[in-house]
Amino acid sequence: MSADVPQCMAYIITHQTKKSKISITSPPLPLPLELISLILTHLYEVDRASLATACQVSKAMFQVAAPILYRQIHVSPLIWRDSRNDHSPDRFTPTGKEKTNTRKKKILKNAEIVIIDSHHATWCGNKSFKYPNLKTLVLNLTVNGFGPVLHGNDILEKQCSLVKCLQPKKLVLFGMTLTSITTYEMFGVPPKIFENIEQLTLVAPMEPIKPRSIWGGFSDMPKLKKLVWIFHTAHPALKWSSGSQALLGEGGAPKKTDLNALGHFLREVSDIPTYVVNSGSLHPNYVGKVAGSKVEIKGNVVDYLENLMSEGEIGPWFSSGWKEGISDTEKQEKKEKFRKRFDNIRFISMKEYLENHDWTGEILPDEAKLWIA
Questions:
Q1: Is residue 257 classed as helix, strand or coil in its secondary structure?
Q2: Is 170 helix (H, G, I), strand (E, B) or coil?
Q3: HSE (CB half, 13 Å, CA atoms) of 268?
């Protein structure tokens, strides 16, 4: 289909442009609406400039193309990244005030994917905007010495007003860290956002900061059906590693115990289908080795986490792997529970994940091409 798209678009635009010159009303579309929508949806990933051009051809084309062009929007303190910026001449009232219901604001309501960048706690103020078609919410977090946060330079206890009114089915937290996995210090992220999500994807990029280890917990997720943890590398050849810049100086080289927080999180979350993606790209130091293939590294990661999770050898205030005072019977019951939980976790490659799962909002299309090729 890729080779035919430019010719189809050229035909559609030419047809609409010619008709528009001789008629004030919007000319009929030259192809069935379903076919045009299919072509424009394809353009969204490969040629958004042409999709934007289609919006300007005619009213009929605008009504079809605009919702596709704005199916994914970016909310950011950086003006050049913020999709909400409106430069239309009719955005002001006769008295000079900006209208609350412009054509741009109406288009934004078509968004199915909303990406919100981390920001200062005062930037979002009391602003809010509802997206009735929202399916996926992506929060680009900032990482500091304590862990990932949405509000850098936070005003304590302040929840992001842009997020509070949203109810996505899928939540993507981009900027997770290996050593600090908790929502209790994720400043700016409202705990209520976790109540209705059906999928949670945690993306851990290669950050220069390595926060201190914390045995935190996660907010309740009663409707959660799928959990994904992704070790994100922009290229298949890269070895994943978090930085060594810690809260109180250098954190040192990667080591096995850096995996403990991940093991604790995977064990304590609800027993739902879980996927750990791209663990084979971890730096060999994480499994106590100098070198190794992706298959070998992944195998070592699985063995280490299996032992931690099934034997109960992780968690705060533990002595010899178990809380003091626990009986042998309780130990056995917990071991069986942990074993069942571990059996519901799949460790898969990035390529396998991209080919068999919906990775909307998790991986950039250009990055995905490198893994699938």
A1: helix
A2: strand
A3: 18
Q: Cα-flanking dihedrals φ and ψ of residue 170, to 5°? A: -125, 130
| Alpha-helical regions (H) of the chain | 5-22, 33-46, 48-55, 59-69, 103-108, 161-164, 260-268, 294-311, 328-342, 350-356, 365-372
pTM across the whole model: 0.83
pLDDT tens-digit series, residues 318-366: 444 555 556 778 778 888 888 899 999 999 999 999 999 999 999 988 8
Minimal CA–CA distance to 200: which of 185, 179, 215, 222? 222
Name the DSSP letter for residue 91.
G
Comparing C-alpha atoms, which of 62, 67, 51 is closest to residue 5?
51
Q: Which two tokens stand for residue 220?
A: 């309740």
To the nearest 10°, report the CA torsion of 145, 147, 153, 155. -130
Mean of pLDDT over the chain: 81
The CA distance from 200 to 176, in Å, is: 12
pLDDT-above-90 percentage for the chain: 34
Q: Which tokens is 178 given?
A: 């290996």
Contact 136, 114 (CB under 8 A): yes
Both tokens assigned to 337:
């529970």
- 113 and 135 in contact (C-beta within 8 Å)? yes
Segment 287-308, tens digit of pLDDT: 888 888 999 999 999 999 998 8
**Six-digit token string for 102:** 């412009």
Q: Reduce the DSSP state of residue 236 to 3 states and report it.
A: coil
Q: What is the dihedral of CA 353, 358, 359, 365, to 10 degrees?
A: 100
97: which DSSP letter?
P
- In one-letter notation, the amino acid at residue 66 is A
Return the sign of the alpha-carbon dihedral for residues 297, 302, 305, 306.
Answer: negative
Task: Give 20's pLDDT tier (boundaries 50, 70, 90).
Answer: very low
